[in-house]
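Can anyone check this?
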Amino acid sequence: PIAWFSVTFNAAAIIVAHNHPSGIAEPSHADRELTNRLYDAMKLLEIRLLDHVVTAGVHYVSFSERGWL
């Protein structure tokens, strides 16, 4: 759905986010793998993935701020 919406609405760039109900904002290995795959897919579509933000309560982790994108 992310790629479909991005193409349908002619996005130049996207930011994705999700929450961790556990209360720990640190991205899991699966989060990092998914982000890498999403980055590669968006690159093929010439759409920039600007950030992936993981939230947990009042805490967050930004992949962009960490230099992971």
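Reply from J.R.: I decoded it. The radius of gyration is 12 Å.
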